[in-house]
Amino acid sequence: MKYRKLGTSDLTVSEISLGSWLTYGVGVDRDRAAACVNRAFDLGINFIDTANVYGRGAAESFLGEALAGRQRQSYVLATKVFFPMSATDQGLSRTQVFKQIDASLKRLRVDHVDLYQCHRYDAATPIEETMQALTEVVRQGKARYIGFSEWSPAQIESAFAVVGAERFVSSQPQYSLLWRKPESEVIPLCAAKGISQVVWSPLAQGVLSGKYLPGAKAPPDSRAGSASMGQFIQSWLSPGVLEAVQRLKTLAREAGCTLSQFALAWVLREPNVASAIVGASRPEQVAENAGASGLVVDPGIFRRAEAIVAGAERGR
Predict the structure, then answer these.
(1) What are the pLDDT digits (tens) for 282-303?
(2) Which of 2, 60, 79, 229 is the most exposed place for a label (fewest CB within 10 A)?
């Protein structure tokens, strides 16, 4: 496993990180989920990403149990705040930031997280209020650093304009061979400001593993075949996307790796990406994805892959 520095922080994170959206505490039974976490550590993954809203606290509670026996300094732990936790609890107000960090720490069974992220931008709360609250969270020792997910360039700039506030060190956008939107503005802006990308859905919900075949029913043990985990993948399952992905398999073989590893290595070719978050329901998936770290692929092969999927992105 290779490691990269996270923005201007002193955190060093594994190139492949383990996420918990739709899986732990909800879609995957506890024993298999624990086996995935243990396998991740065995492979050198030190970065675990979650959020308070995943399973309305269930993912954090599971991780609190799964990580309880490990030395706190042996892993980097990230969580998020913004989405509704109840009919009245949501957003990035001062009240919510303070309330939700305490609730997350209790579920995670730790006294601090390494990275506390704004899960989305809160247009209903003044940016000054949000940044001042996050700054207090850091200065109280409840979080070491702060980040954001899916903010626009203007929103990022507004946070940096708040005088005396803690600075973001990470951005968490969706980014993959099939979704390259961050490249145009967000990545260049973040690189200039010392912010690293920690990308979600680098395999497009598993579509870039090549397991979903055009015209075929989704495997019953896959994310698309799961009632609890399959609701977000449907937009990727168009025939055009699936046919393009199948054509990528030849390039992955040429590069000497699996298609999943090829797609992850493509994401990691971007210097501003510190880590690619993968979800896994089986330890074997963790091991395969971890194998993408440090892969050296001819840039010409990546360019051919980009040409194949051009125009096949979701929504086109």
Answers:
(1) 999 999 999 999 999 999 999 9
(2) 2
Tell me: the pLDDT tens digits for 174-190?
Answer: 999 999 999 999 999 99
Q: How far apart are CA 59 and CA 75, in angstroms?
A: 17
Determine contact, residues 209/185, Cβ cutoff 8 Å: no
> Please, what are the domains in the chain?
3-210+267-295 (3.20.20.100)
Q: What distance in Å separates the CA atoms of residue 12 and residue 114, rounded to the nearest whole number?
A: 11
Active-site residues: which are they?
54
Q: Cβ contacts of residue 183 below 8 Å, gap of 6+?
A: 270
8 backbone dihedrals φ, ψ, rounded to 5°: -90, 10
Residue 247 near residue 311, CB atoms below 8 Å: no
Q: How far apart are CA 265 and CA 291, in angstroms?
A: 9
Packed helices 153-160 and 186-193: angle between N→C axes, nearest 10 degrees: 20
Q: Give the pLDDT means over successive 10-residue stretches in the chain (316 positions).
A: 98 97 83 95 98 96 96 97 98 98 98 98 98 98 98 98 98 97 98 98 94 73 50 72 95 98 98 96 95 98 96 56
Helix (H, G, I), strand (E, B) or coil at 194: coil
Token representation of residue 94: 């001062």
